[in-house]
Structures are given as C-alpha cells and as structure tokens.
Amino acid sequence: MKRMESSFRRHRRLRRTASLRALVRETDLSPAHFVYPLFVQAGLHGRAPIESMPGQDRLGLDALTAEAAELRELGIRSVLLFGLPSYKDEVGSSGWAEDGIVQKAVRILKEADPELVTIGDVCLCEYTSHGHCGVLSGDGQVDNDASLPLLAGMSVSLADAGCDIIAPSDMMDGRIGAIRSALDASGHSQTPILSYAAKFASAFYGPFREAAESTPAFGDRRGYQADGANGRIALDEALTDIDEGADMVMVKPALPYLDIIRDVRAAVNVPVAAYNVSGEYSMLMAAAERGWIDGERAIDETLTAIRRAGADIIITYHAKQWCRAQASRR
Ligand code: PBG
Asked: Which of 70, 184, 213, 307 is buried deepest, with most CB atoms within 10 A?
C-alpha cells in the first residue's frame, strides 16, 4: 500500500536550522564541567612540550601563574595536578613532602587564583623508583595494606598545601576509608574525595606514562587496575568507595567505557566524573594533525558523547581547545 506523504514521521523538521537544532539539543557542554590536567615538573623553567601528547606541556613552577590566568580567561575553573618530582625512592616519599612539587604548585595556583579548584591526584607511581602505584612487598608484589598509610599521608599533605579535592588513582582496596579518616583526623573534614573508582588497566594510558615518567619498571598494573572485560566490577568498586566515604566517583578511561559511565550514573547518586585519557587525546590529535579528521568537530563530538553517557564532570586535555573553538564560534 502506498503511504501518504504526511503519514511518515518527519524527523528532519527539527533539524532544519541551527536555532531549531539548538532548541531541542539534549546535551550541552560547558567549561564549568571540565577539569584540565596539569603536569608540573620540579626544576623545569617555563614549559616543555610532551611529545606523546601534541599540544600539551609540562610546566615549571614559574609557568603556573600565567597558566592560571589563561584558564580563568577561558572559563576553566578546575585543574587536576600531577607531579614530576626531583627524586624518586622505593616508597614514593617525594609524594608527601611538604615541599613536594605538587604541594608547591598548589600554593602558587591558589595564590594566583584562590577560586581555582585544585584537585590533587593521589598515587605513588610518579614518585616511586619502580613506578608502581603502591609499595612493594619482598616478593615484588604491590602490597595493598602497606600502601594505605602512605596514600593517606600523601592526601593529608596535599590538603595541607591547599588542594580542594583529593583524587586517589592508585586502586588499592580500602584506600578511600583510610584517606577519609586521615583527612578528618587532620582538620580536613571539609575536603571532598573524588575516587578513581572504576579505573581499568588500559593501553590508553600510554602517552601519560611518558608525560609523567610513571611507566612501571617491571610487570604491569593488571594486578590492581580493573579488567576491561568486566562491567559489573565497576559498579561494585563505585559502591564500595561511596560506602567508604567517596564524595564523587570516576570512570576511566572514558571512550571505550561509555557503557560503564552510563551504568555507574544510574547506580549512584553522587557526581560521576569521566577521564578522557591521554591515549584518547593523542589518537584524536594525531589524526587531526594528518588532516584525516576535523579536530575541532571530533573534540566536540567526543566530549558531548561522554556527557551524554552520563558524566557530570569531564577530565580532558582538550578543555582549552574546546573553549577556544567555542569562543571563535560565537
Ligand atoms: C596514576 C595515573 C595514571 C593516569 C592518571 N593517574 C596512569 C596509570 O594508571 O598508569 C592516566 C591518565 C591518562 O592516561 O591521561 N596512577
């Protein structure tokens, strides 16, 4: 039977003009929800490009004030801090030194812009000589329980320096409880914890490990980071962390785990963050550099997808580029 022209649904009616499309758009991006990662390197003056992450730099302490001003100008109000310390040892003691690189960076950033939200990444891998996220026991395994007081000490040290949010990325069990107690006992009961709850062992961290010089000297992280083939464990991890006192939970990486972001969003009532990691960033940038994709559009589509999946907060190296492109669209 031949259908009348008017008898089928005309989906295109609402796609006709830019204003109509904007009127019915479900997902909006805003810099208010972006977190921009910063790599701060001890002893560095100015900035040094990170080869594996085109467009990203390591920053010396003397570059931070200008960086804070630039972020403010762009509307980016939160940063996640990683440190490249002046020395590494078996236990990662430069991670909780009062004059540690991130501790110094936070003081400078807060001085430059007291309203900037500073998030301290808590993990030993950037500070240990072996590059693992916790301390090692005699047999070369990562010792979960022996790592907890060190992670808690690092958290207190970062909070003392002025970090607004503590974000443990080490994936030791029981760390959220240990960190919460230590923060509360040291006068930081108001400091929230953003837990890297569902962090998967991923090839997409490759460029970061070059940026942060945190590649494990032996073995890999599969003994503590989650197996990407498992979805339910992400929910278990998120619920455990909330139970132990996490104020927000993270899914990481983002793009290969959009289903997990959606599931975690549905399962919890705290804010959910997604980390659009270094490998996702560099893949897109490499293709854009070659002219194989339109970088600006691909960035917007990527971040929109992460938000549509359910992320309240997006940690992304694309934050500045997105904001600059947005300004030039206006
Ligand atoms: C530290 C840490 C890593 C990332 C964030 N925190 C590396 C890792 O677990 O190996 C990765 C971030 C990225 O790839 O952008 N544990």
From this structure: 307
Class of CATH domain 29-328: alpha beta
Residue 66 CB neighbour total at 10 angstroms: 13
Nearest to 210, CA basis, from 51, 36, 49, 43? 51
Kindly report the pTM of this predicted structure: 0.95
Q: What is the DSSP annotation of 119-176?
A: EEEE-STTTBSS--SS-B-TTS-B-HHHHHHHHHHHHHHHHHHT-SEEEE-S--TTHH
Q: Over the Cα atoms of the chain, what is R_g?
A: 21
Q: Is the CB of 276 under 6 A from ligand 1?
A: no
Domain ranges of the chain: 29-328
**9 Cα: distance to centroid of ligand 1 (angstroms):** 47
What 3-state class would DSSP assign to 80?
Answer: strand
Contact 169 CB / ligand 1 (< 6 Å): yes
Q: 222 alpha carbon to ligand 1 midpoint, in Å?
A: 13
Q: Which of 202, 208, 213, 282 to mutate to test the pocket of ligand 1 (most atoms within 8 A of CB)?
A: 208
> Which ligand 1 atom is nearest residue 204's CA?
14
Q: Rounded mean pLDDT of 252-266?
A: 98
Q: Is the CB of 124 under 6 A from ligand 1?
A: no
pLDDT digits (tens, 9 = 90+) for 70-111: 999 999 999 999 999 999 999 999 999 999 999 999 999 999
CB of 109 closer than 6 angstroms to any ligand 1 atom = no
